[in-house]
Amino acid sequence: MSEQIIPHAWPPGNSEMGVAIRHIDWSLTALGPVDAWPASLRTAVSAALDSSWPTIILWGPELIQIYNDAYREILSLRHPAAMGQRTQECWPEVWHFNEPIYRRILSTGECVHFEDQPYVIEPSGYSETRYFTLDYSPARDESGAICGIRVTAMETTRKVLAEREIKTLLNAAQSSVDQLQQIFDEAPSFMALLKGPEHIFEIVNAAYRLLLPDCAVIGKTVAEVVPETECQDFLKQLDAVYATGKPYNATHIPAYLKKSPGAPATRIYLNIAYQPIKDAEGRVFSIFVLGNDVTAQCLAQIELARLNQELTDEVQQVVLAREAARIANERWELAIESSGGGVWDWDIRSDKVLYSARMAEILGYAEDEFDSTLEAWKSRLHPDDRERVLEALQNCLAAIIPSFHAEYRIRNKNGNYIWVASHGIVVERDTDYRAVRATGMMSDITQHKHTEQEQWNQANSDTLTGLPNRRLFRNRLDHAVKTAARSNSILALLFIDLDRFKEANDLLGHDVGDMLLIEAATRISVCVRQTDTVARLGGDEFTVILTNVDVTEHIEHIAQKIIDAIAQPFYLGNEVVYLSASIGITLYSEYANSSEELIKNADQAMYAAKNAGRNRFSYFTRIMQEAAEQRLRLGGDLRHALARNQIEVFYQPVVDLKNGQIVKAEALARWHHPILGMIEPTVFIPIAEETGQIKSIGDWVFKHAADCSKRWGQQLGCVFQIAVNKSPAQFLSHADATAWARHLHGIGLTGSSIVIEITEGLLLHTSPVVAAKLSVFRDCGMQLALDDFGTGYSSMSYLQKFDIDYLKIDQSFVAGITGNEADRAIAESIIVMAHRLGLQVIAEGIETPEQQALLIAAGCDYGQGFLFSQAVPADDFGRILMENMIPA
Ligand code: C2E
Ligand code: MG
Ligand code: MG
Fold it and tell me: Which end of the chain offers a freer environment for a tag, N or C, measured as fewer CB atoms within 10 Å?
């Protein structure tokens, strides 16, 4: 601050001098008498005294003080102590502090400004601190040289104190703002201040933050932060509050909020208040939002409401159900009585039962003679049903089952048991849910039960013997297998086949056969315990299931008992029939774990018993098992045998016994197994029959034979007949019987090139289909040979009936022909009989010249056997044939 020194007339008059310094005896001051003052001092003093601003002049190098009244007043200086004195003497502490400043101003002429300098002042005996703003500037004489320092002062005590107070107030205000912020932040309610019509988040408390996505929200609009609210009412309400200035309050408002844009919306319930904040003119510029998350309460209320509703519904349902039950009860009684059933009503507490008249009638009583107590009813129950029925009733009373239903036998007045069906429900319960009253009906189902039993018997028992049939046998076996598996006990299955039953049946007629079967069934049944199952599977096949067997001796004992029983003569009218039984036995779980395996094993064991000479039992053994497995494997391999060229046809010559010439051949199949080598037809033909592959193999053998017949016929210049075996299984297929004839025709052969060899079994079980097929062969010129004659039923009647051309005596007779009289007699009589019937005879299996000689002597036409040649490959046979033709 620079101040002009105003030129003043000097010496100043009293009027011009400040009051405070008028009385000053200047001569006593360091300045000396006024008259001696230099002009510049006078000007300075005059200027200081003239200034209305508190001013002090520090004159000359000694800095002698000259100040005006205003200066003296504001500093409360004791008059006149300091006037005209040196600063360093009267205010040493000021001097000490200010001296460097004074020196600087005097040397440099710069101005110095002090703001709000504190001074401790003692205006009235006690000290106080006052504040001053001080401006130091150089004072100059006429020549402009610095002759002192001019200081003007302005007291700022009030300002400083005011400022201080403001600051304190501000500090206090700030801390209360902080407090408010803390309260705001810690408040469980959510709060926010939304600025402007866009509702920009200005302040948001922690509770509110929890509702919002985890991103910065301050400065963003509500629509930006929670876009999902756009389609909800919140924004609309905020707009309305902003536009109208009216606050908005709402409770239990559902809100759908997302924590992030892709996240699923969570439904919460809120209580909300929007308070508009207005400026002095009443315009809204912000909205204060206050709210609470009341989801838990809301959900609880909703759940409560739902439970209440459910309860109300349930109560209503009970009322309705009671009413419905009452109506139903009446209708029901009416309906039951009209349908022939009787009604009962049981008061459980008094244990009294009311029965309708019809109930008494069903049991054969008149209404008044009927003992209607529960005990009487219980005593009439069949002992076998009693426990079951009472348990069902008890379960119904205990509400374990909703209603009582039972079919049981009850004794009527005559003492006979009748079947009844009874239904009932508990119609009343006490507060502890104990049954108080039950009502029900009972109807007579005796007739129905008998019909049912009959139907069951029909479905499950063999009509001839009354034994369980195949179906029931399977059920019982399945059950027995499960029980044995559980209890680890022995289960035995016996397969019984009556030996030579078929002959007896054929010989004596079906009626006798039926009687035999009935008697056999009885005899088998008495050999086993009541708990064991004897079943008839059909024909002469029976089975026995022995359960809980302790030792295998027991099984053998039973099997032997059955064999002995069957071996006893059967006296049927005038006839006495002798039978025997072959029994196959298998054990669970020795080789079998399922019903199927047990049946298969027992069947195989039974065949083993038969093969071993009949009238015996045989166990299923590991060898049988292995053979069965081998058959299974071979069946699989056989499937590819034709395609892989593993089947070959060998030919065995048939010789005219009169001249030793080869006149025919028999085609015999061979299988070259890649691992097992050559497999005989006795092994693989039965497998081919079982697996259905016999058809393709048989056709292939036939074609091969036809080709050879053609080739060798051409070489010989005449028809060369080849015999082809055809098993019964080949007759069962639906294939066209003319196919072979057409094939012959196709390659330019006549039917006479082929002889078809069949077995007796085919003729025994002959059917119209088989007969028709045989006649097709005959019609196209093929001949028929009956193979293995003598081993089967050997019935001469077939020979004529089917117009057989050749009879082949089985090799077992030929083998015995030289040593066994009986065999020779049989062979001879076969030959004689065959010739009489117009058939030619071929003897199989001639191995020795003796056999040959005897057969020639008996008049046998042809011979076949190793004596002449084994069956050989086609090429070998061709050679043998040509050599044989060369005349010896
Ligand atoms: P089979 O029709 O009775 O054939 C005669 C069997 O006796 C042949 O056995 C033959 O090799 C054998 N044999 C011939 N002479 C003698 C002899 O002096 N001593 C002995 N011990 N045996 C002799 P193979 O070839 O093993 O055939 C067995 C059976 O297989 C045949 O008996 C026949 O029933 C059947 N079979 C063979 N090939 C076929 C075929 O292609 N189709 C059908 N369905 N069955 C065939
Ligand atoms: Mg044969
Ligand atoms: Mg034979």
Answer: C
